[in-house]
């Protein structure tokens, strides 16, 4: 009985094997990918990006003229470099996925650059701002539709100097993202020369307790605390600042430009500065169209700051596949020739490193629980004053 | 360093030390009574904090405005719920394994801690994200020179001290405390004297877990934020503190908690990289202390049958 | 024959022929190929359910016991066939990058847990920092691969460095027992991760890229073309990992069967008695700890080169706990059990994407279940046999 039992087991295993192999895929389905932080502290941005790319794929599938039927594979990089490399390897190793829109977090984007190159997998970055992602190597696989952090830090330094603040303490996270922000902000501030940096503090990306750093900052008594990092620790630093009685302007980057920041702090968020490249979504050339279609799909989450860029990235990928077919090498060649392409975020041109230039920098300040453009705000007109403003 | 800055550091250290001490006392209580290390203690703290948060959300839905009342209700609900959870863990997981090697209990409670943590992460709505904890204590403060003394810190510190003193009172002056100490000392004799072993164990676990819930709420009030990972870190630190102080001794646990916090604060002040290296420093010192005194600073009196 | 002889005959179980073990291996190989090829979630789930059911049924009908006996009596032959089965599986998936990567992960995790097995299963020395030593090996290859050092030497150095850093912990580990000893390695695990994160020289939280392996001028990171067939570049790493696993496995088996193993077992079971009989406890604990760390570091160094990327987040306390759970699930002290447990812990969550989110929860629940109901693990360690297969 045991012998025949074994035979039966082998037979059934073989049957299952054939079943799996026989499963034939429909002929003209093409897979495209999305990678972003779907869980963790910045998941709001990741989910917004995923919904936006999903929107692009849906609209394309609804288009009768499309040559292929697209299926989107979404993977979660958790905003952690090691997880990102794993999921990037997984997606790039899967020969059926042709291209992907990848990464909101700079730490993940910079970690996976070599992986995509190793597998010859074309990607368009939609949210990460670290310049090194496109500029460290000249990989033909890597492109980016959003801008880099250099311009936003220039604008940041300009505003701080213009408002008459003299002393700045810099807090940045120790990832490449935070270090990049520190580098470019310090350079820009030094170039303008009106304000000076009294102290620089590096913190880890998942740090809980900032009383050590903030106590030292309190002794330095700066006008402004510049923060180069993401929303979760931004929220913690701002609330612990208040606990220690530090009255300074909290000046952040695109990393804190999300609703999660305001929700996390409540009234404490008032008067926080943030900067971002690109115009606000509704002021983009295709902004109204994008918001209309997005709301029609009734997603649970808003597109957040970079949703429009994610949409533009996926749209460009789909355009390339339509033009040259589902072949990775051909898509790479096609994406190398992108010049003045019209998209919802404006005209996109990839330079020789695959980087697009986004000229506009929007300056935000939190007013009454919302991010308001600086020029439209009551702080600019003088009706309200920032904490250390004279 | 001026007096105000020094005072600020001392205050930071005291707050941290209080939280570590509360967790460490829990570890020591469990060890004393059952000779087990219940590693899920830190994650019970997390669950307690989240229970309190959920209670708060529920209370605001019901339209409750008073902060003090909300705080009281949250504390009561969280403590009761965690006491119940602690008893459940004791009944189902720890007591059946009493005859197994101690290592098995350590491992099973370690895994249980992971289960609790993952449950919070997966099943609490948006559990993976850090959640803002309401600031329910009065927010005023007075400035003593450059030192900013906040009322909520003072309140929390006092509450912690009161709790620990209350626990000492419970253990040393009441009949229940006597029973707990008896069971901790010698199980068989205690049973012979008519003490209901199971009941005492369950009550001890309830007390310890209730303490954890209290520490969790304090943690939430201090940082104004909780996330599913706070338990793991606090659990290990509490464990380390209980061990440095010597398992089985309440005073040792408190000493260990404040010592660890002191090490971290000293590390922050002395080392150039602010608080980046403080954990490395503190844990390295812990390992060194263990090498020097293998059973902790307040020696555990162990005898072994060979 | 006297009555006692007849009873003795009845008590001896029948010899198990080697064909039991070989057929079992063949079935498992086919099953693995099926599981690894399956894409649709429904197929994967039914395969896994089928696997569990047939394993339970085999146990019920007594087939598992016979197979286990066959394994232990004809170990060398079984080992050879296992290697052949592994090569067949690799040949089947020669083009599939991701499956090969998965298999390599399994192989190297087994090597690491073998190291842990020596420390914990044989000598009873607790080590909750397994992932940290794995990380030491990986970071060694990250740092040294950029220099002109031959890469095989880098592997060895990874192992040696792990053993060396482990020796820093020796004094506290030797002096403490039980819970206190557990604390030492837990504290080290946390310390190590934080140290890596704040240290910019080692890449900080961003991690470092690791250059691919380069053996005697042949870069292992290039796809191989033989005739018309393209082999994934992971194939070369696969062969290397398999070689490493075979060496580690043979080492562990020989160690267990030797007088060193006997000493370690005595040490674990009752160190006071062992000390009374003249065994040098300190020396054997040190030996076990260092050899174990060496193996773990070696596996880590190779895995760093395969993955091409190291970051502090890969080597946290939670990862160490996974290694310990594999050890517990498989059966403490039984290397074959480790293979089964690693397959379950590494392969199943990857294939069953729906449970990917819940995998930590499921591991922990599985381990709790095992500890409550079957503390010896899935494949408990068999009684020591002095001459395997020998019958008086």
Principal-axes shape call of chain B: globular
What are the segments of chain B in which pLDDT stays under 50 over at least 5 consecutive residues? Answer: none
Tell me what portion of residues of chain B adopts beta-strand conformation. Answer: under 5%
Largest sheet of chain C: 2 strands, antiparallel
User: Could you tell me the number of beta strands of chain C?
Assistant: 6
What name does the CATH topology of the largest domain in chain C carry?
Answer: ABC transporter involved in vitamin B12 uptake, BtuC
Based on secondary structure, the structural category of chain C is mainly alpha
What does the largest sheet of chain B look like? 2 strands, antiparallel
- What strand order characterises the main sheet of chain C? 1-6
Distance between the termini of chain C: 17 Å
How large is the radius of gyration of chain B? 20 Å
- What strand order characterises the main sheet of chain B? 1-4
Order of helices and strands of chain B: HHHHEEEHHHHEHHH
Output the number of helix runs of chain B: 11
Largest interface: B-C, 43 and 42 residues
Summarize the amount of helix of chain B as a percent range: over 70%
The CATH class name of the largest domain in chain C reads Mainly Alpha
Alpha carbon gap, first and last residue of chain B: 56 Å
Percent in helix of chain C: over 70%
Radius of gyration of chain C: 22 Å
Mean pLDDT of chain B: 84
């Amino acid at each position: 009985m045991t012998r025949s039992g074994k035979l039966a087991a082998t037979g059934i295993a073989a049957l299952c094997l054939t079943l799996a192999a026989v499963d034939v895929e429909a002929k003209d389905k093409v897979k495209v990918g999305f990678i972003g932080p779907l869980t963790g502290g910045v998941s709001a941005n990741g989910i917004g990006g995923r919904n936006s790319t999903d929107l692009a794929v849906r609209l394309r599938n609804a288009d009768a003229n499309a040559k292929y039927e697209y299926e989107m594979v979404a993977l979660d990089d958790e905003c952690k470099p090691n997880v990102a490399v794993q999921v990037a390897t997984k997606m790039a190793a899967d020969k059926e996925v042709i291209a992907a829109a990848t990464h909101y977090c700079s730490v993940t984007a910079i970690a996976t650059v070599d992986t995509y190159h190793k597998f010859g997998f074309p990607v368009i970055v939609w949210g990460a701002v670290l310049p090194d992602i496109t500029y460290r190597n000249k990989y033909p696989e890597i492109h980016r539709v959003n801008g880099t952090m250099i311009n936003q830090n220039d604008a940041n330094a300009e505003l701080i100097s213009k408002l008459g603040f003299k002393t700045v303490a810099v807090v940045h996270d120790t990832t490449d993202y935070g270090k990049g922000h520190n580098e470019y902000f310090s350079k820009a501030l030094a170039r303008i020369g009106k304000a000076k940096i009294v102290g620089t503090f590096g913190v880890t990306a998942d740090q809980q307790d900032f009383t050590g750093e903030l106590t030292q900052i309190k002794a330095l008594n700066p006008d402004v605390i510049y923060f180069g990092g993401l929303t979760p620790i931004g929220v913690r630093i701002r609330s612990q600042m208040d606990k220690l009685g530090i009255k300074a302007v909290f000046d952040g980057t695109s990393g804190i430009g999300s609703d999660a920041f305001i929700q996390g702090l409540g009234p404490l968020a008032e008067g926080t500065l943030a900067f971002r490249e690109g115009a606000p979504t509704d002021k983009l050339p295709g902004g109204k169209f994008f918001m209309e279609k997005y709301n029609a799909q009734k997603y649970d989450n808003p597109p957040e700051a970079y949703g429009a860029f994610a949409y533009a990235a996926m749209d460009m990928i789909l355009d390339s596949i339509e033009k040259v077919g589902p072949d990775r090498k051909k898509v790479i060649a096609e994406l190398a020739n992108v010049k003045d392409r019209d998209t919802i975020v404006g005209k996109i041109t990839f330079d020789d490193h695959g980087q697009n230039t986004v000229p506009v920098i929007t300056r935000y300040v939190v007013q009454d629980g919302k991010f308001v453009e600086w020029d439209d705000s009551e702080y600019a007109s003088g009706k309200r004053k920032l904490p250390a403003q004279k | 360093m001026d007096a105000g800055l020094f005072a600020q550091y001392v205050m930071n250290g005291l707050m941290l030390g209080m939280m570590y001490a509360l967790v460490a006392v829990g570890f020591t209580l469990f060890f004393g009574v059952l000779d087990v290390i219940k590693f899920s203690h830190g994650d019970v703290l997390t669950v307690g904090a989240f229970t309190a948060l959920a209670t708060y959300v529920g209370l605001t839905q019901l339209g409750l405005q008073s902060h003090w009342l909300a705080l009281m209700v949250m504390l009561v609900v969280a403590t009761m719920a965690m006491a119940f959870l602690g008893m459940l863990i004791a009944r189902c997981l720890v007591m059946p394994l009493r005859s197994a090697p101690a290592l098995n209990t350590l491992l099973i409670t370690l895994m249980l801690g992971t289960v609790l943590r993952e449950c919070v992460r997966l099943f609490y709505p948006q559990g993976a994200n850090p959640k803002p904890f309401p600031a329910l204590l009065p927010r005023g403060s007075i400035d003593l020179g450059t030192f900013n003394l906040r009322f909520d810190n003072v309140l929390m510190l006092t509450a912690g001290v009161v709790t620990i003193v209350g626990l000492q009172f419970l253990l040393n002056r009441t009949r229940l405390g006597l029973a707990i100490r008896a069971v901790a000392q010698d199980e068989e004799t205690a049973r012979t004297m008519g003490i209901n072993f199971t009941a005492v164990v369950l009550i001890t676990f309830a007390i310890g877990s209730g303490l954890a819930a209290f520490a969790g709420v304090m943690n939430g009030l201090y940082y104004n934020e909780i996330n599913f990972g706070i338990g793991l870190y606090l659990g290990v630190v509490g464990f380390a503190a209980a061990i440095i102080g010597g398992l089985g001794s309440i005073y040792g646990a408190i000493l260990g908690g404040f010592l660890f916090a002191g090490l971290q604060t000293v590390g922050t002040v002395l080392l150039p990289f602010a608080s980046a290296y403080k954990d490395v420093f503190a844990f390295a010192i812990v390992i060194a202390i263990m090498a020097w005194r293998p059973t902790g600073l307040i020696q555990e009196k162990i005898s072994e049958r060979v | 024959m006297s009555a006692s002889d007849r009873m003795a005959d009845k008590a001896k179980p029948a010899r198990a022929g080697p064909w039991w073990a070989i057929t079992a291996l063949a079935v498992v190989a086919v099953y693995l190929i099926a599981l690894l090829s399956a894409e649709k979630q429904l197929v994967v789930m039914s395969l896994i359910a089928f696997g569990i059911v047939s394993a339970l049924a085999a146990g019920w009908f007594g087939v598992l016991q016979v197979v286990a006996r066959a394994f232990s009596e004809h170990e060398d032959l079984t080992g050879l066939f296992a290697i052949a089965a592994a090569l067949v599986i690799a040949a089947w998936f020669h083009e599939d990058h991701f499956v090969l990567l998965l298999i390599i992960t399994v192989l190297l995790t087994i090597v690491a847990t073998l190291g842990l097995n020596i420390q914990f299963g044989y000598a009873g020395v607790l080590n909750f920092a397994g992932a940290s030593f794995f990380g030491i090996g990986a970071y060694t290859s990250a740092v040294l691969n950029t220099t002109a050092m031959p890469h095989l030497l880098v592997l060895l150095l990874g192992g040696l460095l792990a053993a060396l850093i482990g020796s820093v912990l020796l004094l506290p580990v030797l002096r403490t027992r039980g819970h206190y000893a557990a604390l030492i390695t837990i504290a080290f695990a946390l310390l190590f991760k934080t140290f890596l994160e704040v240290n910019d020289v080692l890449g900080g939280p961003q991690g470092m890229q690791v250059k691919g392996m380069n053996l005697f001028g042949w870069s292992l990171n290039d796809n191989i073309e033989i005739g018309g067939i393209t082999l994934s570049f992971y194939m070369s790493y696969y062969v290397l990992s398999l070689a490493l696993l075979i060496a580690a496995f043979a080492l562990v088996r020989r160690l267990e069967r030797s007088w060193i193993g006997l000493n370690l077992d005595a040490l674990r079971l009752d160190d006071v008695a062992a000390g009374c009989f003249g065994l040098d406890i300190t020396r054997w604990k040190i030996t076990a700890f260092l050899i174990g760390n060496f193996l773990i570091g070696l596996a880590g160094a190779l895995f760093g080169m395969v993955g091409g990327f190291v970051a502090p987040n890969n080597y946290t306390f939670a990862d160490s706990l996974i290694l310990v759970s594999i050890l517990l699930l498989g059966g403490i002290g039984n290397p074959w059990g480790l293979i089964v447990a690693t397959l379950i812990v590494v392969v199943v969550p990857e294939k069953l994407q729906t449970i990917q989110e819940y995998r930590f929860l499921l591991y922990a629940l599985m381990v709790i279940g095992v500890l409550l109901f079957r503390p010896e693990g899935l494949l408990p360690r068999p009684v020591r046999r002095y001459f395997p297969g020998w019958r008086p």
